[in-house]
Amino acid sequence: MKKFLTTNNVLWIIYLSLLAVLLPHTAWAFAQFEPVGSWEFTPYLAALAFEAAIAALTHKLAKHIESGKRHSSAWRKFQYQYLNIYSLGLISCLAISSLANLAHAVEFGTEIKIFTVWGVPFGLYAVVFGAVLPCISYVFARVLSNAVDEDSAEDPATIELRSKVGELNRQLRESERAKAQAERLTLDAERKAQEAEARFAAAGDLMRFLCAPEKRERILFAKKQWPQLTGSAIAIMTESQPSYVSEVLSGAEAA
C-alpha cells in the first residue's frame, strides 16, 4: 500500500478526479451539436476521448519536462520542455475542453452574493469556474515532473546501506566460490591418494609374490598375472630353470 501511495500516484488520482468532474460539462457542450433523437452516448464518448487525450498528453509532457532538465541553458530548457508536439496537442485539447466548460458555466451559472455585493462581473466568475479548470493540466504536468524526482530520490543512509549489503553479498559469493573450489581440490586430492594407495597395494602384492621363498609360488603367480609370458621368460623372472617352470605349470594344469 505504501508503494502505491507515492506522491506521483496521489497527484494522478487528484488530476484524474478533476478530469472526471469536467467530463459531464464537456459532454453537454458536444450534445449541443447533436441532432435531436441521436444516440445519447455520443457526446459522452467524444468528451471521454478529449479528457483521456488531456490525461495522456499531460503524462507525456510531464515525462518530457523531466527529461529536459539536463539542458543548462534556460532558453534551451524551456524550448525543449514546452515547445514540442505534446504541448501543442495538450493546448488543442485544452482549448476545446475550456470552451466547453466555459459555455456550461455561462449557461447554468447564477450570480452569487460575493460577486453581486462586490460588483465582480459574472464573466470573471464563468471564466474562473469554467474555462480555467482544464488549463490546470499544464500546472499538473509541471508538478508531476517534479514528483517523479521526489519519488526517485533516495535517502543517503538507504543508499549507503544498499551499498554495504551489496558488498557483503559480493564477499559471501566469493567465499562460497572459494569454499567450493577448496572442496573440489580436497576431493581431487583424496581421489589421487586412493589411486596411489591402490597402485602401491598392487605393487606390494607383486613384490610379495615375486619375492616369495617358494619358486613354485613365484611361477604360478607370474603365469596368472601375465598369461602371455612364455616359460623361458617366467624362468628368468623367477630365477628358475625352464624345465622346472614347465613341470610346475604342467602340474597346475593337471590339477
Structural class: mainly alpha
The structural domain count equals: 2
Major sheet: none
Measured on Cα atoms, how large is the radius of gyration? Answer: 48 Å
Q: Please, what is the average pLDDT?
A: 77
Protein model, in words:
The protein has 255 residues and is mainly α. The chain has two domains: 7-156, no CATH class; 203-255, no CATH class. The chain is 81% helix and 0% strand. Residues 149-153 have low confidence and may be disordered.
Descriptive keywords:
about 260 residues; mainly alpha
Q: Helix and strand layout, with pairings?
A:
Blueprint: H1 7-31, H2 42-67, H3 74-82, H4 85-108, H5 113-118, H6 122-152, H7 156-210, H8 215-225, H9 231-237, H10 242-254
How would you concisely characterize the structure shown here?
The protein is mostly helical and 255 residues long. The protein contains ten helices and no strands.
